[in-house]
Known about the structure:
The protein is α+β, with helices and mostly antiparallel strands. About 70% of the residues lie in helices and about 15% in strands. It has 7 helices and 5 strands, in the order H-H-H-H-E-H-E-E-H-E-E-H. It has helices at about 1-95, 100-125, 125-130, 135-145, 165-185, 220-235, 260-269, and strands spanning about 150-160, 190-200, 200-210, 240-245, 250-260. Helix 5 links the parallel strand 1 and strand 2 (about 190-200). Helix 4 packs parallel to helix 5 (about 165-185) and helix 5 (about 165-185) runs antiparallel to helix 6 (about 220-235). The radius of gyration is 31 Å and the shape is elongated.
Amino acid sequence: MENEGQIKLLVLVTTVIILLLGITVVVLFSFFQKKKVGYIAKQREVQQQFEEELTKSKIEIREQALQNISWEIHDNIGQLLSVARMQLNIIEASLPENQQEKISETNALIGSSLQELRSLAKSLSPEIIKNLGLIDSIQMEVERFNKLKFIKTELTVINTPLLIQSDHEIILFRIIQEFCNNTLKYSKGSTLNITLTYFDDSLQIIAKDNGIGFDTQDKNKQLGIGLLNMKSRSKLIGAKLELTSVLGKGTQLDIKYKLPEILIESFNG
C-alpha cells in the first residue's frame, strides 16, 4: 500500500511538473510571439514613416520647382513679352495707318499671351494658392480653362466651407490640378465638373469629365504616374482617393478628406 501511495504521489508530481512546463512553454511562446508581432509592427511603422517623409520631401521639391518656374514666367518671360509689346507700340506709331492693322493684331496676341502666362504663374505658385485658398484657386483654374476654351469647366460649392490648413489645401489643389491636366490631355471631353461638398468634419471633392474614359488596368506610363502622384499626395494628408472610369462615358475623381481631430476639437471648443 505504501509503495502504491508513493507511485501515485510520483505520478501526481510528474503530472504537475509536465503541466507547469507546458504552461511555461505556452507563456514563453505567447510572450515571444507578441514581441515578434510588436517588432514587425514597429518595423512597418518605421517603414511607413520613412515612405511618408520621402513622399513629403518629393512633394516639397516639386512645389519649390513650381515656385521657381512661376517666378521665371512672371519675372523673366513676362518682362520680355512686355518689352516686346512696348517695341511693337513704337513701331506701330511710326507706320502709316494702313499698315498698322497687322501690328495691332500681333500686339493683341502678345497681350493675351502675357495675361495667360501670368495666370499660369499664379496657378503654379504655392504661395498664391496659400493666400487665395482652395476654392478661389480652383475657380482661377476654371476661369483659365473657360477663357482659353480648353474645356467647358464648372465649379460647384455645397454648404459652408471649412477652415482647412493651408498645406493640406495646396495638396488638395494639386490633386485636382493633376486630374484636370490629365482630362485636357487624354479625355477628349467637352465638359468638366468639379463639386466641393462640405460636411461638419469633412470635405468631399468630385471631379468628373464626359470624355472617352480609359481602362483603369491600362499600363499607360503617363496615366500611371499621374494616378500615383494623386494617390501619394492624398495619403500624405490622410485623404481617401478613388478614380473610376468607364470607356465612352468619362472619368471621375472622388476625394474624401477628413478634418484632423485637433482642428475638429478646436472648432467644437
